[in-house]
Amino acid sequence: MSDLRELYQEQILDHNKQPRNFRPIAEPTARAEGHNRSCGDQLTVYLKLDNDVIQDISFEGKGCAISKASASMMTAALKGKTVQEAEAIFETFHEMVAGEEELEETELEQLGKLAAFSGVREYPSRVKCASLAWHTLHAALDSPEAIEAPVSTE
Fold first, then answer.
1. Three-state DSSP class for 52?
2. Beta-strand pair 41-50/53-62
3. What distance in Å separates the CA atoms of residue 28 and residue 13, rounded to the nearest whole number?
4. Contacts of 74 by beta carbon, 8 Å cutoff, 6+ apart
5. Which of 29, 92, 128, 133 has its CA 20 to 30 A from that of 70?
6. 1 falls in which pLDDT band (50, 70, 90)?
7. Where is 50: in which H helix or E strand?
């Protein structure tokens, strides 16, 4: 295993064991629930938006290591970003884990620590785990009012 792969694996394990921003937000301005029926991952993403800036972002729920680590790293990466920046990062992240072609080195560098999930594309069944929090975030940003049904990666 390459040094970079080992570093990525360590980051994912760390965020799974000690997830960042794992808590509800009192009076969120947006929230959405997500469910991955394939492996049972369930989570809720909470947002506190102010003038299109993500002032606070968190999540809670249960899931596999990839799902929990992805949600943790997502919240850490997006706090303080604008909605437009968050959507752009979502698109790049989704392309990295589920796209047909690998990202250019500069695109991976722009993702920073989120590039730890670049190897997920080699395991199609894990793509849904890595992208659940991101699709849930996207739904919360799209419809800040309460969403009736959970977002699904199916």
1. coil
2. antiparallel
3. 28
4. 57, 59, 93, 114, 133, 134, 137
5. 29
6. very low
7. strand 41-50
- How far is 153 from 37, CA to CA, in rounded Å? 8
SS3 53: strand
Place of tokens 């849930």: 136
DSSP per-residue letters across 131-148: HHHHHHHHHHHH--SPPS
Q: Residue 153: CA atoms inside 13 Å, Cβ hemisphere, count?
A: 27
38 burial via Cβ count (<10 Å: 0-12, 13-18, 19+): middle
Contact 5, 95 (CB under 8 A): no
Measured CA to CA, the distance from residue 48 to residue 55 in angstroms comes to 6
Tens digits of per-residue pLDDT, 6-61? 767 899 999 999 999 999 999 999 999 999 988 899 999 999 999 999 999 999 99
User: What is the C-alpha to C-alpha distance for residues 75 and 47, in angstroms, rounded to an integer?
Assistant: 10
Eight-class DSSP state of 100: S
Element (H, E) at 27: none
Contact call for residues 135 and 33 (beta carbons, < 8 A) = no
Domains of the chain plus CATH, in order, are 3-145 (3.90.1010.10)
